[in-house]
TrEMBL record:
InterPro entries: B-gal_1-like, BetaGal1-like_ABD1, BetaGal_gal-bd, Galactose-bd-like_sf, GH, Gly_Hdrlase_35_cat, Glycoside_Hdrlase_35. This is Beta-galactosidase. The active site is at residues 152, 228. GO terms for molecular function: beta-galactosidase activity. It comes from Streptosporangium minutum. Residues 368-472 form the Beta-galactosidase 1-like first all-beta domain. Residues 495-553 form the Beta-galactosidase galactose-binding domain. The lineage of its organism: Bacteria, Bacillati, Actinomycetota, Actinomycetes, Streptosporangiales.
Length: 576
């Protein structure tokens, strides 16, 4: 039996002093067929451990509907096959720039507290997730050495009864390796987010000496551990691409290790936010200001880029980490990329014509039902109402749009309304006009006090000073568009779906760009890659080689704003 433990303020593995050199790599952001390559890249950089979150909402999108739970165990096995130990962070909250911080949209009770209603759901989730972690601990012949209790809880609350319930529950479910919390290096974070008997670790991007001094002041007997060394950062739509100087990042890593600390690189390899899973953040010190949705790419300016290639940061980190390794493995070959090409859509269908095969039956209600009330995590909802009459034409005001709305009056486009800018300019037809609002959801807030937000037309519609009542609502899921019937040729108006054929001799990675198009979604061989938006900074979507096959491949995209003419394959990514 192997044992990973804490003795005299340091980590030991089988009785020998051990430095945890870890890197974050989320199994749910990387195609399963690529796990082996990415894990081998971690080993080649000089790491001995991989860390992953577990997103609850991916595995239980609706109550009792568990999906893909076994992927966590398979990933841990893949890590073991590459000689890596593992750190598991099961939540229930993970942040991770992931939709709603990993919490399912259907949760009831006061989130992230000891509210019995909330805890009942948490316990059911952990009952399903934790057995595959427990059986893979080093104490049972596996590779799991640490398990986290919640995540950065000190940034949110101070309900220690909640943390104690989680910690005791993990032990009751068989966790024998050390438990830990992770928080920012400040007194309010560490006093709110830690509990007795559970190791405390800190998260930061710079000034390690100061961070560790703060940790020491609160936990003099715990080993020094930076559980999240933020060596890069993530991007938001409409804002600049964030990068960090590799030399600065390597210098900070070297100082972390010189302090005698263990470290987890966040991220070692970011990957992509699949489908509609990207989250959102809020501006301000209290994380309650302007809403900023996260892009599809989770490249994170990590040392291993989105397609698994080493960056300058990788080589500088490898040089630093070499001093803590007897010998480093060779760096795996860089995955091949398809050659540049220009593609022309061959077929299309207007969204309105596709409703019968994509949309769910209409729900009638006095006020617009939310996405969650319609049983929809993400996608589109088409709301329909009528202006009473006869009356004069008045402006329409859409209140609390979550998150973007295309407005049609008597079937004609009348404007686009975005979250935080919710007044539709100009008058509309008066009495008896039919008003339709196509609402698109984007990322839910993943950090701070505003978790658990709803999507849809939350505040209804005002006609002049009067609320309109009586709505029909049709939910349009976007997970599966295989039933679409495309006509020959392409339409010149949006919203519409377009079909493009990609001929491939041998599958390889690709970077897909949609120049001249506006905003929408892309599917490759029926798999939803994610969102694109001409607002940037991200201009290309990463297409993993395992999604492609030799011969004909189908690319479908839904354009909401503006129709272009071609799609392009690029040899390099363009993230802004």
């Amino acid at each position: 039996m192997r044992v990973f433990s804490v003795d005299d303020g340091s980590f030991q593995l089988d009785g020998t002093p051990f430095r945890v050199l870890s890197g974050a790599l989320h199994y749910f952001r990387v195609h399963r067929d690529q796990w082996g390559h990415r894990l081998a890249m971690l080993r080649a950089m000089g790491l001995n451990t991989v860390e992953t979150y577990v997103p609850w909402n991916l595995h239980e999108p609706w109550p009792g509907d568990f999906r893909g739970v076994e992927e966590l165990g398979a990933f841990l096995d893949a890590a073991a096959a590459e000689g890596l130990l593992a750190i598991v962070r099961p939540g229930p909250y993970i942040c991770a720039e992931w939709d709603n911080g990993g919490l399912p949209v259907w949760l009831t009770g006061h989130l992230r507290t000891s509210d019995p209603k909330y805890l009942a759901h948490v316990d059911r989730y952990l009952d399903r997730i934790m057995p595959q972690v427990a059986e893979r601990q080093v104490t049972r012949g596996g590779n799991v050495i640490m398990v986290q209790v919640e995540n950065e809880y000190g940034s949110y609350g101070s309900d220690h009864a909640y943390l104690r319930h989680l910690a005791d529950g993990l032990v009751r479910r068989g966790v024998e390796v050390p438990l830990f919390t992770s928080d920012g290096p400040a007194d309010h974070y560490l006093t709110g987010g830690t509990i007795d008997g559970v190791l405390a670790t800190v998260n930061f991007g710079s000034e390690p000496e100061q961070a560790f001094a703060t940790l020491r002041a609160h936990r003099p007997d715990d080993p020094l551990f930076c559980m999240e060394f933020w060596c890069g950062w993530f991007d938001h739509w409409g804002h600049e691409h964030v990068i960090r100087d590799p030399r600065d990042a390597a210098d900070t890593l070297e100082r972390i290790l010189a302090a005698g600390a263990s470290v987890n690189l966040y991220m070692a390899h970011g990957g992509s936010n699949p489908g509609t899973r990207a989250g959102a953040n809020r501006d301000g010190a209290q994380a309650d200001g302007g809403w900023r949705p996260t892009v599809t790419s989770y490249d994170y300016d990590a040392p291993i880029d989105e397609r698994g290639a080493p960056t300058e940061k990788f080589w500088r980190f490898r040089e630093v980490l070499a001093a803590y390794n007897e010998e480093l493995p060779e760096v795996p070959a860089v995955p091949a990329v398809l050659p540049p090409a220009t593609l022309h859509p061959e077929g299309s269908v207007l969204l309105r014509q596709a409703l019968d095969v994509l949309a769910r039956p209409e729900v009638v209600a006095p006020v617009p039902p939310t996405f969650e009330e319609l049983g929809l995590e993400h996608g589109l909802v088409l709301y329909r109402t009528t202006v009473p009459g006869p009356r004069e034409p008045y402006p329409l005001t859409l209140r609390e749009v979550r998150d973007r709305a295309h407005v049609f009056v008597d079937g004609r486009p009348a404007g686009v309304v975005e979250r935080d800018a919710e007044v539709l300019p100009g008058p509309v037809a008066g009495g008896f006009a039919v008003v339709e609002v196509l609402v698109e959801s984007m990322g839910r807030t993943n950090y701070g006090p505003l978790l658990g937000e709803r999507k849809g037309l939350l505040g209804g519609i005002l006609h002049h000073q009067q609320y309109l009542h009586g709505y029909g609502a049709r939910a349009i899921p976007l997970e599966d568009v295989s039933a679409l019937a495309f006509g020959q040729g392409t339409v010149d108006e949006a919203p519409a779906f377009f079909r493009t054929v990609l001929e491939v001799t041998e599958p390889a990675d690709a970077f897909l760009m949609l120049p001249g198009w506006g905003k929408g979604y892309v599917w490759v061989n029926r798999v939803l890659l994610g969102r694109y938006w001409d607002r940037g900074p991200q201009r290309t979507l990463y297409v993993p080689a395992p999604l492609l096959r030799a011969g004909r491949n189908e690319i479908v995209h839904l354009e909401l704003d503006r129709v272009g003419s071609v799609l392009e394959l690029r040899a390099e990514p363009d993230l802004g």
